Structure of Sigma-70 family RNA polymerase sigma factor:
Amino acid sequence: MSRNLETLDEGELLRRVARGDRSAFDEFYRRTAPWLTVRLRRRCADEDLVAEVLQETYLAVWRSGGSVAHDAARGSAVGWLWTIAARRLVDAFRRRARRERLPAALAVEPVAPAAEEQVLADRMDADLEQALLALPENLRQVLRAMVLDGLTVRETSLLLGMPEGTVKTYARRARIALREALS
């Protein structure tokens, strides 16, 4: 591998990928795939689905051409990569839901609870747990993405397929509802 590629940041690697540089793509994949796999596993316990989403994500990176460099230039390249992967994961959940004829809201749930959710559930007192369960599903999804997964408003918007303003509104409503339920 060219020593030159190892010194480039991810944004520059993406700009080279946009020009068709296969070595830059390989370096970008080497750097980001382990991290992206971990992030996807936090949202989904199905290893086959994670592998499928990972493959679709990097295929989209390779095929997206010039738009990659333009989109990544507006923010971090790794953040851009996560938004692509998050959308692919949501799409995969929706495809699965259609195949299994389940409502889409049920399909967004991971197959097994994430480790963070398990720890929080074990430590959470009954009042907070009941307050969370009383929230409408759309508010719970926003809260889960922003609090447990640490996603930004933009990333949550892309993951859940809703406008950023709606994400902000739902997050505010969830906080108010929790505050009222616990006071």
Notes: Residues 1-112 form a domain with the Rna Polymerase Sigma Factor; Chain: A fold (CATH 1.10.1740.10). The two ends are 59 Å apart (CA to CA).
